[in-house]
């Protein structure tokens, strides 16, 4: 390669919701004998999922596949109410690792539907988050993802509200929102956008970087909505070469000039290290283009924190001290990337 400059977008990589979900599943792997089950992929990243499979985690698309009494985690994307109920009915330990931002949208759906609204929901067909959200009020919600689909909606007699999948591209969402506002001028929208702050921050960093780049590398899996939104945004910004890769092994050998690197919200930092190294530039020499600092923190679910605390008490009583691999009471100083590396 003839790369003479590498730009690193900041923020990039793991968001607060992904950090929480990965650490929560790692705690479950430590707390229970295998197998531990997880409903859907914990996050949309093949390498993360494969790492957990190596530790005895079994990913299922139907909670009926989980043997009675076995522990199960529900993924960060959010689950339909009937899925949560079925998981709890199975008699095993259930941890719901849904991102709090997705929970906010679920509550908004429930609230608006209860007040008689018809809900226009902007989301991708078949995406786990969209499926789970629509199941909260299936008779009151209408999924769209294009201006044309907004035009095809009926003229509702009830009041209309608009909500969105959290990982959408801001540009894609804004166009659909504008079309819906024109169609339903009195439409209710939440005071605070449903779009995830981390998704928006990563897109802003990419847009700031794009004009300087001969190529942009977006690290993340093809089934990650926010990763694919980054790649699409880089192309729309006019970057001549845009590559979406899972790892450094997928890089071509003809990159040149200035290369920008970013990562979707479910891609961990070691993948960034590998990509920068493959470009032939020391990471310390890469230029960081920072648009904002992220300091949001989502604690693991309460019942899991209580379980881990109980395990620590038992370990102290029986062994005279907590094992070194027990998670700390406050895990903010323990990055999920380090947790993955230790698995």
Topology of this protein?
Layout: E1 2-10, H1 16-31, E2 36-39, H2 46-54, E3 57-60, E4 72-74, H3 81-89, E5 94-96, H4 100-114, E6 118-122, H5 128-134, E7 141-144, H6 147-151, E8 160-164, H7 170-183, H8 197-209, E9 215-219, H9 225-236, E10 241-245, E11 256-263, H10 269-278, E12 287-290, H11 302-319, H12 336-342
Parallel strand pairs: 1-11, 1-12, 2-3, 2-4, 4-5, 6-7, 6-8, 9-10, 9-11
Helix pairs in contact: 1-11, 1-12, 4-5, 8-9
Derived structural class: alpha/beta
Order of helices and strands: EHEHEEHEHEHEHEHHEHEEHEHH
Shape: flat
Using DSSP, what is the number of strands?
A: 12
Distance between the termini: 34 Å
* Beta-strand percent range: 15-25%
Share of residues in helices: 25-40%
Round the Cα radius of gyration to an integer and report it.
21 Å
Structure description:
With 343 residues, the chain is α/β, with parallel strands linked by helices. 39% of the residues lie in helices and 17% in strands. It contains twelve helices and twelve strands. It has helices spanning 16-31, 46-54, 81-89, 100-114, 128-134, 147-151, 170-183, 197-209, 225-236, 269-278, 302-319, 336-342; strands at 2-10, 36-39, 57-60, 72-74, 94-96, 118-122, 141-144, 160-164, 215-219, 241-245, 256-263, 287-290. The strands form three sheets. Strands 10-9-11-1-12 form a five-stranded parallel β-sheet. The protein has a four-stranded parallel β-sheet with strand order 3-2-4-5, with helices on both faces. Strands 7-6-8 form a three-stranded parallel β-sheet, sandwiched between helices. Helix 2 (46-54) links the parallel strand 2 (36-39) and strand 3 (57-60). The longest helix has 18 residues, at 302-319. The chain is flat, with a radius of gyration of 21 Å. 45% of the residues are buried. The model has no long low-confidence stretch (mean pLDDT 90).
